[in-house]
């Protein structure tokens, strides 16, 4: 479904990705793990078009998307839930969710999806008219996750979705991710909670210093000595 | 008493024009975060457009208004595309200085083209004022007030009730994330600036005939507009409207009952006082730390 | 080989319109003189510089004209603060300047012997008005004046004269130079018990005041002072609101025959029209015309284009100016007197959209 | 390395009156120098605390009026018959008083800036300048209002054992301005390189964080405002005694804009920025004057400003030093886009 | 280890935003040298409690004192001066400065000299300057960013910025450190290292109040845990008690966490 070949990109001359190739198959849940600064977020940003690649190619569902701008990427069916929440601080919770459905014109179904998110995250339902910038960190994270789902993507990318969430909400969030996968949405997941991520994914990639150094089924990576030592704390 | 009533009526009329000046700038300064020194020039431009269309081309006054507004829109779009777009992502002071450069150049351009002698525009309104008891007010100004109210309401609805308005606000709060939502941020930048500019031109087109038209007419208007926007709270349309009336009230009463020499000082003192009491304007956005 | 005369005027900035008028008048004078063979057998050349309506620039321009262009005499610099800023330079380089417009009394009273002014300061205007004020039957007057040396000076000198004449003085309101909305001041004046309003400001604000006074239903006798009113522009822009207003002017382009030098006036107006300028500009531009002719006459009298000689000669000239004889009288502290000439002052009235002499 | 460059520049500037014989250019250099001192003081606020004072000319003007009134004397009536009469003092006293009075006003505005920030600060400063202008305009008894204060004497420096040195000629004034500029420069440089300067930077970039590590906002901003205002006041005093006439137009907005142009085009937050920007935009009108029509000069002025910013958006000095450090092989500082920009000001 | 002298005392603290009660009648203490964790569901009021303790918010009711000094009405910088320093839940750095300059700004309290000394460049000012520069290098090494010390903080990855945030707080020389989700964005191994870091800090006598959702970390490092829900304390005690408290499991931990 998504194929990246030898992608290089960076910020102002310094390469953060030094030639990355990866594949995501339709319906799969693919995890991307790595240390701080390894380039995980940069990979997601490159896919969604926030940072332009300096070389390499990106193909989504057979269409070449190399260098496409974010709106086009989203329109083609890829949603990106960015790292660090990035909610629109001076807009209400409801407006933030509506922004997630910006490209959709089916108003009634949008409302339905929104209610669905309120059911998933009752905390947000209590806060509909609150300015998103005044929400607590975890509440903002829930909002960011909900907002990304509002576009009804075929591929959804989460960048550290569990960040700042209470344990029970983390659990629930992973359940939601599994649920949307089961409903047919492909998922690309970046997680610091490597144990959980590897446990639930079909396939995983390990990034170090802007390169992919290991890939395989999640269970295989969990068993890997190097991964255990460097990422699973044991 | 009758003098006081007259002051109040003046305040209403003046406040309406101030509010109109304020809302265009709220879009560009409050929402886009561009310290827009060309706002006054666009106001002047709108006024000269009226002069050209009415006095030189002989068109109908009411038809000329939309022409001026559209011309302001186009000029705003051009400014955004040529001056602001290449500097996207630079800090606010850099774009401010570019706007200063454009202001200086465009104002001198106006002087070059039209000369320094003031122009005026004939209007279809009767010269005799509307007199109600001790109070009188000109028909033209009433028309301006009505038109201003219309534009203000339209802008309010645009920003707060439409998808485009939502996208505008989102874009300037976090432009990367807005683009992740599918917003064409380039288009939003250009159209926000253009809409703000067309409002400035509309203000000029409406007020030009009330006053007289000359190249520096926008300077004072711009300073007042900045003050109004800040008074109301950045990016808040309702705030800008109320700010406009407060400034008008301060000036009227200052001139009427304190001293005409300190007329403008009253306005500025009010601004200082308000900001000391409420450091982020009358309608502050809620913020939090941590 | 030409004789240079420096012209230091605001061509950009707030006073651009007036400065440009003055320069246009100056050019007419220079061409007229040159067409007649120049002075001392040489053509004159105007070195025109823009002082940007800014005192610092006005001083810099004077510096340039004197040291770079080596002009032996200058004309300038329109506004009082512009002229005042130039004055130290005149002392420094001992170069005389003909002041064509500025009205502050400080200019001729602060002991600068290089200043020769042909514009009337407020006391001169007030003195001229004194002659006719009885016939106007004023009882009580309010003032609305521009908040600068000119407006404030006028309010002071006219009030003093009124009080001497037994006329009461009511409100004295001011407005900022750039102000566009005077409704607040006018509302206050509307409520006062005076029957007359004296207004001093430039033509643009006068237009606004007449329009706004009409809109407020203010019914008072309005008299403007200062001679920069430009009635034609007022009539064009204020329409009926200008009817009934009276104006103290120093130049009568509408009635060339009533001016001190009808032929010169006719010539000037013809030239002005020939160049396609707005007739309305005459009331300001004639100052530039007179200023250059004054400077030229002094050079001629001096016999050489040298500053010291010109300065001496300026005391001795007698030029038939468009608004009266230009003869300089001493003004200011002894030993360092500046020159001041006494132009004529007239009262005109606008009625039915036309300018007429006020019949008294 | 830097020190040598500084000394060479100062020596070069000091030699100018020895070979430049054109009084017109000297005059332009002196007035430009005075505005550069004003710009340097503005840079302390804008470049190092991030607070844009669009009313900076207020301090400049207050300095000018203080100095002029001190040396001219005044007589004002309060409560009817009671009069405050001030006999003229030597201008040099006016110079120092200008620094003190402007500094005090800086203190006032600094206390205000404790509450308002960013755009709100900009408007408070504009308003302050306007109010000061209107007071200068309307308090005729003290300031002569629009009638202007003229015949302001030149500064005279008493030299022990000799007669006083009267700063009347351009030669004198040039060195006077240069000396004040160098002192101001050194003061500002020392200040911003000390922990005070770092505290200012911290407040500029992330106030919440700065406060949380113990930086006192009020104290830091007030200190910056006082020093900045005092230096602007010194510049204003030099202006008054050099031009020798001041009127309320000194508070004109365009004068602040000129300083802002000098600072940002040269590079805010860089010590050399206002000097480079100041020389370019201070002297440009002199070179434009002979070659084009007056309106065109302004258009060119605005155009050059825009072009410089297009080519060097950070301002001249920072952009060039970046270029230099790149050539020397140092890692260029990347743009902090991503989340960083979001963190600086907006709420959680 | 703990000397049982209360360092921080939070008494009857309540605050609301408009109609929303974020904290009501909050009471707890942290003893000198203790590591206490404050946990609870999202939006329970933990960060708000931090904001009140460090002076960024004024409580509607109640008071806070540190080492006997009431903190009411003190400004955040004054509280930092007393020795209470916090980190932020959101990444918080000086983005346009290098890591080195970030730390120098953080070292503000250690680099104070009088204005004239700084302006005249007197010896004491220079000596202080040298000392803080050394300290900045030390701190950067300590959080493992020594190699990147001349990179702009804004160009670091999320996790790296969080490390800078902690280093900044340490630079301020706290006697009590309040950490708001310090290990969010770190993986298990990095968290492990960080736990060592915290223990290390505590062993130098710094009291620590921690907010964190990473339960394994909280359980392993805390002496005591305070649990908040909807602005109220619902449980308080040592890790083992909290882990098995049904109310806490219900409101916060969820079923899976029981095994952590
Ligand atoms: N805006 C930026 N400007 C310059 N460099 C950047 C920028 N953003 C990231 N980098 C650099 O690119 C590299 C990869 O960063 P990235 O954000 O992709 O890391 P990550 O794997 O997501 O780390 P983390 O787990 O901490 O989020 C890092 O070395 C970082 O310093
Ligand atoms: N300025 C504010 N205006 C309105 N509501 C606010 C404000 N600050 C906080 N709140 C609300 O108060 C509640 C407590 O917020 P707080 O940030 O303290 O939660 P928290 O316990 O830190 O949560 P998290 O674990 O998600 O960080 C939240 O519901 C939040 O929406
Ligand atoms: Mg990341
Ligand atoms: Mg929190």
Automatic annotation (TrEMBL), chain A:
Q: Which residues form the ABC transporter domain?
A: 2-234
Keywords assigned by UniProt, alphabetized:
Amino-acid transport, ATP-binding, Nucleotide-binding, Transport
- Transmembrane ranges, per UniProt, are none
Q: What's the short name of a Pfam family annotated to this entry? A: ABC_tran
Q: Which InterPro entries match?
A: AAA+_ATPase, ABC_branched_ATPase_LivF/BraG, ABC_transporter-like_ATP-bd, ABC_transporter-like_CS, BCAA_Transport_ATP-bd_LivF, P-loop_NTPase
UniProt GO MF annotations? ATP binding; ATP hydrolysis activity; branched-chain amino acid transmembrane transporter activity
UniProt name for this protein: Amino acid/amide ABC transporter ATP-binding protein 2, HAAT family
Does the entry feature the keyword Nucleotide-binding, yes or no?
yes
Query: Which function does this protein serve?
Result: Involved in beta-(1-->2)glucan export. Transmembrane domains (TMD) form a pore in the inner membrane and the ATP-binding domain (NBD) is responsible for energy generation.
Signal sequence span per UniProt?
A: none
- Annotated GO biological process: L-amino acid transport
Q: Which family does it belong to?
A: Belongs to the ABC transporter superfamily.
| Top-level taxon of origin | Bacteria
- Cited PROSITE patterns: ABC_TRANSPORTER_1 (PS00211), ABC_TRANSPORTER_2 (PS50893)
From TrEMBL, chain B:
What is one GO cellular-component annotation here?
Answer: plasma membrane
Q: Which GO terms describe its biological process?
A: amino acid transport
Keywords tagged on the record:
Amino-acid transport, Cell membrane, Membrane, Transmembrane, Transmembrane helix, Transport
Per the record, the coiled-coil ranges are none
Where in the cell does this protein reside?
Cell membrane
Task: Write out the transmembrane intervals.
Answer: 12-31, 61-84, 96-118, 139-159, 187-214, 226-250, 265-284
Task: Classify the protein's membrane topology as the record does.
Answer: Multi-pass membrane protein
Please name the GO terms that the record assigns under molecular function: transmembrane transporter activity
Under InterPro entries, the record lists: ABC_transp_permease (IPR001851), BCAA_transport_permease (IPR052157)
Q: Which Pfam families match?
A: BPD_transp_2
Q: Which family does it belong to?
A: Belongs to the binding-protein-dependent transport system permease family. LivHM subfamily.
Cross-referenced PANTHER family: ABC TRANSPORTER PERMEASE PROTEIN (PTHR11795:SF452), BRANCHED-CHAIN AMINO ACID TRANSPORT SYSTEM PERMEASE PROTEIN LIVH (PTHR11795)
The name on file for this protein is: Amino acid/amide ABC transporter membrane protein 1, HAAT family
Automatic annotation (TrEMBL), chain D:
Q: Name one GO cellular component term.
A: plasma membrane
Matching CDD domains, A to Z? TM_PBP1_LivM_like (cd06581)
Lineage top rank: taxon: Bacteria
Record keyword Membrane present? yes
Entries under InterPro entries matching the protein: ABC_transp_permease, LivM-like
Which parts pass through the membrane? 24-45, 57-80, 92-110, 119-140, 174-192, 221-239, 245-264, 271-292, 298-317
The protein's name in its UniProt record: Amino acid/amide ABC transporter membrane protein 2, HAAT family
Organism, per UniProt?
Answer: Bradyrhizobium erythrophlei
From TrEMBL, chain E:
Record GO terms (molecular function)? ATP binding; ATP hydrolysis activity
**What do the Gene Ontology cellular component annotations say?**
plasma membrane
**PROSITE patterns under this entry?**
ABC_TRANSPORTER_1 (PS00211), ABC_TRANSPORTER_2 (PS50893)
Could you tell me which Gene3D superfamilies the record lists for this protein? P-loop containing nucleotide triphosphate hydrolases
Q: Which InterPro entries match?
A: AAA+_ATPase (IPR003593), ABC_AA/LPS_Transport (IPR051120), ABC_transporter-like_ATP-bd (IPR003439), ABC_transporter-like_CS (IPR017871), BCA_ABC_TP_C (IPR032823), P-loop_NTPase (IPR027417)
Keywords (alphabetical) are: ATP-binding, Nucleotide-binding, Transport
Domain ABC transporter, residue spans: 8-255
Of which family is this protein a member?
Belongs to the ABC transporter superfamily.
Matching PANTHER family, A to Z?
Answer: ABC TRANSPORTER ATP-BINDING PROTEIN, CONSERVED COMPONENT OF ABC TRANSPORTER FOR NATURAL AMINO ACIDS-RELATED
Describe the task this protein carries out: Involved in beta-(1-->2)glucan export. Transmembrane domains (TMD) form a pore in the inner membrane and the ATP-binding domain (NBD) is responsible for energy generation.
**Any idea what this protein is called?**
Amino acid/amide ABC transporter ATP-binding protein 1, HAAT family
The organism encoding this protein is: Bradyrhizobium erythrophlei
Taxonomic placement: Bacteria, Pseudomonadati, Pseudomonadota, Alphaproteobacteria, Hyphomicrobiales
């Amino acid at each position: 479904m998504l194929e990246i070949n030898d992608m290089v990109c960076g910020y102002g001359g310094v390469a953060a990705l030094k030639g990355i190739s990866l594949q995501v198959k339709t319906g799969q849940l693919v995890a991307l793990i790595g240390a701080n600064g390894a380039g995980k977020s940069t990979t997601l940003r490159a896919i969604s078009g926030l940072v332009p690649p300096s070389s390499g190619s990106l193909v989504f569902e057979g269409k070449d998307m190399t260098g496409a701008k974010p709106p086009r990427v989203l329109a083609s069916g890829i949603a990106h839930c960015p790292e660090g929440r990035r909610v629109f601080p001076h807009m209400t919770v409801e407006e933030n969710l509506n922004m997630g459905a910006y490209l959709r014109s089916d108003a009634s179904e949008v409302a339905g999806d929104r209610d669905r998110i309120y059911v998933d995250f009752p905390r947000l339902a209590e806060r509909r008219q609150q300015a998103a910038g005044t929400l607590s960190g975890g509440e903002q994270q829930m909002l960011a996750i909900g907002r990304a789902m509002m576009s009804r993507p075929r591929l959804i990318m989460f960048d550290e979705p569990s960040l700042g969430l209470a344990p029970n909400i983390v659990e629930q969030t992973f359940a939601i991710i599994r649920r949307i996968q089961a409903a047919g949405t492909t998922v690309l997941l970046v997680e610091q909670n490597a144990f959980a991520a590897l446990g639930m994914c079909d396939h995983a990639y390990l990034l170090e210093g802007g390169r992919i150094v290991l890939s395989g089924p999640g269970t295989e990576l969990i068993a890997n000595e190097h991964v255990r030592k460097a990422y699973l704390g044991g | 008493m009758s003098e006081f009533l007259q002051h109040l009526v003046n305040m209403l009329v003046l406040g309406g024009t101030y509010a109109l000046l304020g809302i265009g700038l709220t879009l560009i300064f409050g929402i886009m975060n561009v310290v827009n020194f060309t706002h006054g020039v666009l106001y002047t431009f709108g006024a000269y457009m009226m002069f050209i269309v009415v006095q030189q081309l002989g068109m109908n006054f009411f038809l000329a208004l939309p022409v001026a507004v559209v011309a302001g829109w186009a000029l705003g779009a051009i400014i955004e595309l040529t001056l602001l777009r290449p500097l996207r992502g630079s800090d606010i002071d850099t774009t401010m200085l570019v706007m200063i450069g454009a202001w200086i150049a465009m104002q001198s351009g106006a002087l070059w083209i039209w000369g320094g002698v003031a122009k005026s525009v004939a209007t279809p309104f009767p010269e005799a004022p509307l007199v109600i008891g001790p109070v009188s007010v000109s028909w033209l100004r009433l028309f301006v007030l009505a038109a201003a109210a219309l534009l203000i309401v339209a802008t309010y609805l645009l920003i707060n009730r439409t998808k485009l308005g939502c996208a505008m606000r989102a874009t300037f709060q976090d432009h990367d994330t807005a683009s992740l939502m599918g917003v064409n941020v380039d288009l939003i930048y250009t159209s926000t600036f253009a809409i703000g500019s067309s409002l400035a031109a509309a203000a000029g087109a409406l007020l030009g005939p009330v006053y007289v038209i000359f190249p520096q007419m926008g300077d004072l208007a711009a300073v007042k507009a900045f003050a109004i926007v800040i008074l109301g709270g950045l990016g808040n349309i309702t705030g800008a409207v109320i700010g406009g009336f407060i400034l008008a009230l301060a000036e009227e009463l200052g001139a009427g009952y304190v001293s005409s020499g300190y007329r403008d000082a009253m306005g500025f003192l009010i601004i200082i006082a308000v900001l000391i009491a409420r450091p982020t304007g009358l309608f502050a956005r809620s913020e939090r730390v941590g | 080989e030409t004789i240079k005369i420096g012209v230091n005027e605001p061509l950009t900035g707030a006073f651009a319109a007036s400065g440009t008028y003055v320069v246009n008048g100056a050019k007419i004078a220079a061409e007229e003189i040159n067409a007649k063979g120049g002075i001392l057998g040489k053509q004159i050349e105007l070195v025109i510089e823009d002082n940007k309506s800014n005192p610092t620039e006005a001083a810099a321009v004077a510096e340039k004209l004197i040291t770079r262009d080596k002009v032996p005499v200058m004309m300038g610099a329109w506004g009082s603060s512009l002229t005042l800023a130039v004055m130290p330079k005149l002392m420094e380089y001992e170069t005389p300047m003909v002041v064509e417009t500025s009205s502050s009394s400080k200019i001729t009273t602060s002991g600068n012997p290089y200043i020769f002014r042909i514009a009337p300061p407020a006391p001169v205007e007030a003195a001229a008005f004194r002659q006719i004020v009885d016939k106007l039957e004023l009882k009580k007057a309010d003032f609305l004046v521009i908040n600068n040396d000119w407006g404030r000076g006028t309010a002071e000198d006219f009030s003093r004269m009124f009080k001497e004449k037994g006329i009461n003085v009511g409100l004295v309101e001011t407005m900022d130079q750039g102000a566009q909305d005077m409704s607040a001041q006018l509302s206050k004046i509307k409520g006062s018990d005076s029957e007359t309003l004296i207004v001093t400001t430039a033509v643009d604000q006068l237009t606004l005041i007449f329009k706004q006074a009409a809109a407020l239903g203010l019914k008072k006798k309005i008299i403007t002072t200062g001679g920069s009113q430009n009635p034609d522009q007022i009539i064009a822009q204020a329409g009926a609101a200008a009817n009934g207003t009276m104006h103290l002017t120093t130049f009568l382009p509408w009635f060339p025959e009533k001016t001190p030098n009808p032929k010169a006036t006719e010539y000037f107006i013809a030239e002005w029209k020939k160049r396609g300028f707005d007739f309305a500009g005459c009331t300001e531009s004639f100052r530039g015309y007179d200023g250059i002719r004054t400077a030229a006459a002094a050079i001629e009298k001096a016999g050489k284009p040298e500053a010291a000689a010109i300065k001496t000669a300026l005391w001795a000239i007698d030029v038939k100016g468009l608004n009266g004889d230009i003869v300089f009288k001493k003004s200011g502290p002894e030993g360092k007197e500046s020159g001041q000439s006494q132009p004529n002052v007239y009262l005109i009235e606008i009625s039915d959209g036309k300018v007429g002499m006020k019949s008294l | 390395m830097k020190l040598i460059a500084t000394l060479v520049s100062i020596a070069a500037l000091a030699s100018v009156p020895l070979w430049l014989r054109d009084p017109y250019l000297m005059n332009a250099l002196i007035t430009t120098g005075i505005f550069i001192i004003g710009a340097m003081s503005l840079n302390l606020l804008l470049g190092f605390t991030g607070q844009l004072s669009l009313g900076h000319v207020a301090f400049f003007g207050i300095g000018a009026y203080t100095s002029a009134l001190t040396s001219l004397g005044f007589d004002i009536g309060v409560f009817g018959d009671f009069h405050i009469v001030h006999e003229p003092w030597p201008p040099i006293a006016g110079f120092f008083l200008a620094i003190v009075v402007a500094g005090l006003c800086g203190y006032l505005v600094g206390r205000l800036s404790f509450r308002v920030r960013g755009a709100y600060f900009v408007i408070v400063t504009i308003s302050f300048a306007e109010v000061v202008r209107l007071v200068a305009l309307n308090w005729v008894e003290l300031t002569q209002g629009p009638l202007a204060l003229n015949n302001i004497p030149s500064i005279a420096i008493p030299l022990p054992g000799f007669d006083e040195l009267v700063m009347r000629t351009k030669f004198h004034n040039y060195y006077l301005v240069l000396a004040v500029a160098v002192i101001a420069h050194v003061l500002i440089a020392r200040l911003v390189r000390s922990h005070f300067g770092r505290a200012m930077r911290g407040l500029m970039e992330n106030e919440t964080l700065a406060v949380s590590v113990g930086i006192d906002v009020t104290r830091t901003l007030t200190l910056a405002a006082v020093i900045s205002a005092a230096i602007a006041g010194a510049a204003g005093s030099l202006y008054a005694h050099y031009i020798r006439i001041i009127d309320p137009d000194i508070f004109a907005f365009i004068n602040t804009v000129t300083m802002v142009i000098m600072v940002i085009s040269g590079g805010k937050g860089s010590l050399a920025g206002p000097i480079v920007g100041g020389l370019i935009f201070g002297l440009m009108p002199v070179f434009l004057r002979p070659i084009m029509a007056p309106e065109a000069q302004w258009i060119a002025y605005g155009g050059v400003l825009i072009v410089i910013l297009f080519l060097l958006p950070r301002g001249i000095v920072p952009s060039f030093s970046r270029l230099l450090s790149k050539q020397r092989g140092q890692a260029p500082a990347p743009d902090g886009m991503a989340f960083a920009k979001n963190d600086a000001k907006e709420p959680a | 280890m703990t000397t049982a002298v209360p360092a921080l005392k939070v008494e009857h603290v309540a605050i609301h935003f408009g109609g929303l009660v974020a904290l009501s009648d909050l009471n707890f203490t942290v003893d000198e040298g203790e590591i206490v964790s404050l946990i609870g569901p999202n939006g329970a009021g933990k960060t708000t409690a931090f904001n009140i303790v460090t002076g960024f918010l004024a409580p509607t009711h109640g008071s806070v004192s540190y080492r006997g000094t009431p903190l009411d009405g003190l400004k955040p910088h004054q509280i930092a001066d007393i020795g209470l320093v916090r980190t932020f839940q959101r990444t918080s750095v000086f983005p346009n400065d290098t890591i080195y300059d970030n730390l120098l700004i953080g070292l503000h309290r250690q680099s104070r000299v009088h204005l004239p000394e700084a302006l005249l460049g007197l010896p004491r000012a220079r000596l202080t300057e040298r000392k803080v520069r050394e300290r900045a290098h030390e701190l950067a090494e300590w959080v493992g960013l020594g190699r990147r010390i001349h990179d702009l903080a804004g160009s670091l990855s999320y996790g790296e910025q969080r490390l800078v945030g902690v280093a900044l707080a340490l630079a301020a020389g706290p006697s009590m450190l309040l950490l708001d989700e310090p290990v969010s964005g770190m993986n298990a191994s990095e968290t492990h290292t960080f736990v060592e870091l915290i223990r290390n800090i505590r062993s130098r006598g710094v009291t620590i109040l921690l907010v964190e959702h990473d339960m394994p970390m909280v359980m392993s490092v805390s002496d005591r845990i305070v649990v908040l829900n909807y602005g109220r304390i619902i449980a308080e005690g040592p890790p083992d008690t909290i882990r098995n408290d049904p109310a806490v499991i219900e409101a916060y931990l969820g079923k899976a966490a029981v095994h952590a």
